[in-house]
Design brief:
heterodimer; A: 174 residues; mainly alpha; 2 domains; B: 103 residues; 74% helix
Chain lengths: 174, 103
Amino acid sequence: MLGNIVAFLSSGANIAFFVCALLAIGGAVFMISFTKVVHMLLAMALTFLSLAGLYVLLEAEFVAVVQVLIYAGAVSIVMIFGIMMTRHRGDEVEPKRPLHSWLLGIGCLALFGIIFYAIQQTALPTGEFQAAGDNTMEIGKQLFTLHVIPFELMSVLLTVAFIGAIIVAKREED
Amino acid sequence: MSGLATPYLTLAAILFCIGLYGALSKKNAVIVLLSVELMLNAVNLNLVAFSKLGVHPGLTGQIFSLFTITVAAAEVAVGIAILIAYYRSRGTTNVNEMDSMKR
């Protein structure tokens, strides 16, 4: 047991994975347990940043940078705007629903148990991974050759969604 | 029977379950949206992990996760916009009190 732990911690990548995973889970748990909305948001930003660290470990540098830009930057700021535009005074008082929260907790734990059992039972063979020389350039090439139609569809979706968001949130003159 | 991808998959499962708990138990609609983001992030972690540690490693998983991130950003923008419009007409962000779509 102890030998396993020492062998696990002898590799730098494993230590980095351990730290990032701990920060991610810690941020998520704090998000659940904090009572002030802004604190929840900051804990969530910690989770997003540590997930970016995990992406770097998985040699997906471009996705890591996008994660920091979009999630830790844009999504957090939009959420802060959402909090500021609505009213939040003091602590969040969760409604007392013991049966609901117990059933929910048991259900989530059961789901996790099922997924965990499936992961442990499945053989996950690993293929030969050769890192692309320039991750960003390879992604760009594939986006504009193989995946060009989803890429263009995504730009249309983003435009429609953001124009729709502006129209929905606009103050109506009446 | 497990592979190199097992720790990542387990971490993603933990994050997904925490996100599910938050989305179903929290009262504030902003936090519900945030929990949905956490679930999407867990799925992204799976995609990126399999793009390196899967049977056929390649860039496809990373590109797929980029698309997911884009859709998640659009979802957050529209969700917050709906929330602000709802707050303007009703004065609440409590999901327990959201029971009507009329004015």
